[in-house]
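PT: before anyone asks, these are the final sequences, not the draft ones from last week. 810 residues across everything. Please model them as a single complex and drop the result in this thread when it's through.
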Amino acid sequence: MEILQKISDSLIALKNKKPLVHHITNYVTVNDCANITLTIGASPVMADDIGEVDEMVSFASSLVLNIGTLNSRSIESMLAVGKKARERGIPIVFDPVGVGATSLRTATAKRIIEEVGPSVIRGNMSEIKILAGLDAQIKGVDSTADEEDGIRVAKILSKKLNCVIAITGKQDIIAKGDQVCLIDNGHPILSQVTGTGCMATSLVASFCGANEDWFVGAAAGIMTMGLAGELAQQSLQAGEGIGTFRMRLFDAVWTMTPELIKEGGIISNG
Amino acid sequence: MEILQKISDSLIALKNKKPLVHHITNYVTVNDCANITLTIGASPVMADDIGEVDEMVSFASSLVLNIGTLNSRSIESMLAVGKKARERGIPIVFDPVGVGATSLRTATAKRIIEEVGPSVIRGNMSEIKILAGLDAQIKGVDSTADEEDGIRVAKILSKKLNCVIAITGKQDIIAKGDQVCLIDNGHPILSQVTGTGCMATSLVASFCGANEDWFVGAAAGIMTMGLAGELAQQSLQAGEGIGTFRMRLFDAVWTMTPELIKEGGIISNG
Amino acid sequence: MEILQKISDSLIALKNKKPLVHHITNYVTVNDCANITLTIGASPVMADDIGEVDEMVSFASSLVLNIGTLNSRSIESMLAVGKKARERGIPIVFDPVGVGATSLRTATAKRIIEEVGPSVIRGNMSEIKILAGLDAQIKGVDSTADEEDGIRVAKILSKKLNCVIAITGKQDIIAKGDQVCLIDNGHPILSQVTGTGCMATSLVASFCGANEDWFVGAAAGIMTMGLAGELAQQSLQAGEGIGTFRMRLFDAVWTMTPELIKEGGIISNG
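LR: through. Structure below.
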């Protein structure tokens, strides 16, 4: 399939460009996000003080805004840096962690969407449905909504916000207007490690920072995490568990190649 | 022994309920706390902004308050969320990291005890002695006090504060009034990894979030960490060290079963 | 070479003293810094609130100031705790992460140098050249400057600031006035893990906290990280990657001995 070739090529572009990815993200998974960004071949920078974010993002090839542990200080920095990134035309990847769980998260997501205008939104089904103004059961920051209507919701939200929507779950859905692809890589064990969603977002930003087609970049980031999860899970021996899995996940992203993507990627039109 | 059966049963209850554990904790070990919570079968959420903690804790089955890296902003959030959790009647597990080392920590611990009222306090001997108003040598946040009088101190403090006291050390002491149990699992290497105390606290909150008997929940969390430490240590091969140990610790919590608890748990009446 | 014997001896002193190392550092790599400090045999404490840093540092044997994710709150704490540490005469190890990338970082580094007066500065070539007032290309927080003139720059800055300068790169340069040593341990893979620079800084502070000769302490910390990187890299099997490397890096620091330093350390006069 043509898209798989494009995803495969996008990894080469990433490795060649080594894009700098500016993150304002949560303090729970920030180390994992920095490491996964380095591991795929990009370069992370984390800076969130209002006094320096404008300057820092001026070097960056893409921006991650992740509201996992938002606070009044970081919200203002996200809005400021987002506007600057928008001016510069670099891709802004938004991870609306736990939107809907609290009014603060919902209000902040709304401001980021309206005042910044993300290029890609990566979330689980519950989060994306909240953004689309639909009902979803929220339990903390975990996804509980089922995946039916996912494609429809992704298309509607993509058109409404004029951005790429990436919904991760059992089957991942990537939509840009009416263009949709479905990714069937991954493994349920990924949901037992904190930060795999955040790391997928960082991978999306790494790919988008080196590729002009952000639909392909989003698909590439999501597929890379899914494939790496499969490889890491398959490597587990008797007695090994989630600690070993987490280490091998980084090994698998580290050893990812265009060939592995073409061989292992499972993608179809939605 | 009857308590061992109850601890074993409490793991089944945890796996069935998958309780949501709200944490306000330090930024040093927060990722480990989130991962250990997921690993045992509960669900972590970290949120500390005063603008959302009330709402977030309304979904939670238990609350962790950990003052490892406290600051003026997080202290107010801890007090607010603690009061809300108290109103809801969910267990509040307090980890007084480094209390006694600075006036701010001591004053904050006092406020949490007086204004919130924890359900369980998990600390090392130095920290618990400070809370009990006794002398203890403090060197940073490490424990240096010896363990004599531990049972007496735990009983006194438990009665005074009407909560479960869990003292971790060479021998762990769990007290609820005059009811005391002693746990002899664990390995000294656990003290060479940062966050094993914090993770024990998160495990206690995970068990208490799914079990009404918080004395049993506290014992279950402490025993799980101790047993996992033993298993991880025993797995080490020549040339392997603390990095491998830390990974295997998560593997061991991941593969913990009611049977392993009944076989390996070493517990006696105090 | 005499210096190698001194470095080897400094590890014994560290293991005997178990110095407490107070850190104000970034939230990206703070867990790694705490763990590497424990792993080498020292004791970490992380505290950054202005209300307690003065008290906390009064127990400490050394202080780390790392501006990786600085903000207005932590800057004031760094200045306050730095002055206190200076009064006490304990070594202050400054890591000017990303200085030159933003005005805030440059201004903060200037304030720390002028108002506190570090004992050791550990940075990459770009960062040190910025501090020396020379030109350097900065791309986020990564080093891009070449290493020529490194020795000259290190000497000039050391004399100007009356402190030890440690430049890490392909070849590490340690300077104290005209006294210079060059370390040729390490492996390029170290730059693919976030926080190896920060961890080197924590190791320097661990050694300096137990040894009066901070030139030797700086060399010991840098060499330990380099040697550990070599050992971890050599251990990698087919299919293993950066996740495994990162784990083995801690294993290698854990198993470091005076003998391994004497056998593996590659050091020369500059």
